[in-house]
Amino acid sequence: MRQRQRGITFIGFLILAALIGVVAYGGLRLVPIYLEHMAVASVMNSVKSELDGQGASPVAIRNAIERRLNVESVSTVNARDFDISQGSGGWVVRIEYEGRAPYLGNISLVANFDRQVEIRR
């Protein structure tokens, strides 16, 4: 009687390892983009906590954002990229941008980010 073999063949293992490697490489290329976004989110939250309820003007908000971007060493966005508009109870600060990371050859990975906070007067 013949025994049934169980397990994965060497070729199947190589194909599986290649697929896992491609996905892991993409994840490694995206980590810096998400770390930068976390820094941008931190800047927005700290500006909100500092200026919330202080009657800040758009110029003061933009200056606070610029200072914090410099401290956090954020290079993908600058203070002019933040949209400051008047909301119902204060100022709405919004940033919408995309991060790109080269992947293989002319293929890039793109992550879109959109975040907003409201700073009350």
Provide key terms for this protein.
3 strands, 121 residues, alpha+beta, 2 helices
Explain this structure to me?
This protein is α+β, with helices and mostly antiparallel strands. The protein has one domain. Helices cover 47% and strands 27% of the residues. The chain has 2 helices and 3 strands. The mean pLDDT is 94.
Report the span from N to C terminus. 83 Å
Uncertain runs with pLDDT below 50, 5 residues or more? Answer: none
Tally of separate helices: 2
What is the general shape? elongated
Sheet-strand content, in percent, reads 25-35%
Percent range for helical residues? 40-55%
Please write the string of helix (H) and strand (E) elements: HHEEE
- The spatial strand order of the largest sheet comes to 1-2-3
Mean pLDDT figure? 94
Give a short account of the largest sheet: 3 strands, antiparallel
The SS-based structural class is alpha+beta
Rg estimate, integer Å: 23 Å
What layout of secondary structure does this protein have?
Elements: H1 10-51, H2 58-72, E1 83-86, E2 90-104, E3 107-120
Antiparallel strand pairs: 1-2, 2-3
Précis, in short:
By secondary structure, this protein is an alpha+beta fold. The protein has two helices and three strands, in the order ααβββ.
